[in-house]
Specification:
heterodimer, A: two-stranded antiparallel ribbon, B: mainly alpha, two-stranded antiparallel sheet
Chain lengths: 223, 125
Amino acid sequence: MSDIREASVEPANDRLPGGVLLQLAPFLVLAAAGVWLAAIWDQLPAQMPVHWNWRGDADRIVTRTPLNGALPLMLGGSLCLMMMGMQLGIRHGAPRATMRTSTLKVLLAGEFFVAFVCCGVLASMVTGGRLLAPVLAGCFAGVAAMLGVTWMLVRNVPRAAQRNPAAWHAGFIYIDRNDPAIFVPKRLGVGYTFNFGNPLALVLTAATFAIPLLAVLLALTAR
Amino acid sequence: MMLRIDMDAGDPVWRQIADQIRSLLVAGRLKPGARLATVRELAIDLGVNHNTVAEAYRRLAGEGFISLERGIGAVVVDRPPPRAPAGEQERFARKLRELVAQARAAGLPAQSVQAALEKAAEEVP
């Protein structure tokens, strides 16, 4: 298979979508929730539910401590930070293409979704589960909206040219040590995959697992 | 303005990059003052080592087509028309004969080769 590569000689003109304000907005949402939490702190019960079973009954209760109270916001903040990192990684480490701009927008939308879900979880906690049902409904609606947004953004994106046929292994693993890209267009499907020939890709893969895992461990060890 | 690089061609990649950018510059499609993609951007887009793109840019800077400044990148400069050095006409004629021979050996008819040469001469002012 021939290996023809194309690129524009003009400089990139795409930026992170929405500018600084929109990029910071998910974190501001979480911060606002944190301020609200601090304002009502003394009114909160000594014990707060943090997990509910499928019947809607609280099956895990924790003591009211600043760490326990802030856990949903910390989880949201870490996930938003990770997704912003992915935006920066794709903006500066993936080849330019229409798909790059669309992917950045989907990631930003995802940050907003995560921020609002985590605020919803916090609201459920502090209200003893009374807001659980509307929060869950909001989550499902949010997932549907995210799928719709993603579909709208990617449906007309032209398929990226296959990059270096010899670097693909098992059909979906890309390894090219001479390729400086961190992310490359997937060979199958839509989106990006790591270039595992770039050492940074291994670091980012580990971080993708480690950050959410750490947040979950913190949540599970909360008393 | 797109570059098209054949990774399996005999020509080194840096030379293909330099040749294609030079063609755009000589044809006037890149104006003085225009910025080129950074070394990093072009390297990532093409999936080649940074040094490959850097070499192409260094060659073009050495020929006076672009300037390379840290923090600014590659910028097209207003290059005065050069004076052809002695023997350039013969060198060019020899390269052209070799190119025509390669095209004919690959099976291209003489008329196609002639038409392509005339088109190329018209496209580049």
